[in-house]
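Lab notebook, bench 4. The sequencing result for the construct came back, and we need a structural model before the next group meeting so we can plan mutations. Quick request posted to the team channel:

Model the 3D structure of this chain.
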Amino acid sequence: MFFNKICIIGTGLIGGSLALAFRRKYIGEKIIGIDFPETIKKAVEHNIIDEGYTPDEIEQQVSDADLVILATNIQQIISDLKRIPPMLKKDAIVTDVGSSKETIIIIADQEFPDYINFVGGHPMAGSEKNGIDAADPFLFENCFYILTPQKNTPPDVLNKLVTIMELIGAKVLLLNASVHDKIAAAVSHLPQMLAVKLVNLIADYNQDEPNYLKLAAGGFRDMTRIASSPFSMWEDIFKTNSENILNIIDEFIVELNKLKDELSYTNLRCEFENAAKTRLSIPKDTKGFIHPNYDITVVVEDEPGVISKIASTLFEKGINIRDIEVLKVRLLEGGTMRLSFESEKNREAAIDLLTEKGFYCRKR
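Done. Here's the predicted structure in token form:
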């Protein structure tokens, strides 16, 4: 046991998954959750936490906690950073899970006394589903868990956080909060904005020519997958990291203007080759800011029940299909389907199972 009492404020997907992962690895003797009554009821019933309390009971529960995790949305994290410091005991460790870090660190510096240890955190893990019902003890397996310590962070405090996050399967990366937010703006927040704007642009074109959306499959669908992310998840990020996002948008506009000037065969070939080379260097075995697709394609015959057969084969082994799409179909001949999974492990297992059933499938 690393902590006698862990208090997790916010028991949704991330908070609930941390609770389950900590229980699995015996990281806390007692794990307390704080959330609204309906969520707490589920968390206790499913043995995700030992005890649950509502927000109006927060003072009593954090006062003797060794580790406090702020696992709510960013604005609520900021509110709690201002509220809880007087409630905490000496040498308590506090961390958060917010997707932007610099604003949170600045407020923690202003509000926390020297005898309380705050270390910012950002687990780069997620799921297609949200809330306590989606909590998963293996959510952090092979994901980057970013910690943003400060110069005055005691080494033993940082080491303890690094150790417990590694125990639950995460790859810990230490970053300056400002650097974190600049990277996030470039590799996560800008792509999100581009996906949203590109989908909306095509939707506008589709009003006059309805074949735009008909033909917007395959690569377009993959590229714009993140456009379906709920705004509630992004609103606080845009508010707290707006300067970096605006800067990277300006830089991207410069690059687009360069691209307009380079629309000759030679220059464009160079751009494509450089992009392909760079993309090959992106790690494939870790979860990043944008969660990867673990896809396979399956060649199927045109016969009744073939999709049901595939689904039931995977269901029997507990493998969940995150997404399914028919890519190519010829009447009476069959076609090709795309299946998407939550992890590389599930993708490999699906290929083995479907191959045994006589399907031809491969990684996409």
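The mean pLDDT is 89.
Will bring this to the meeting.
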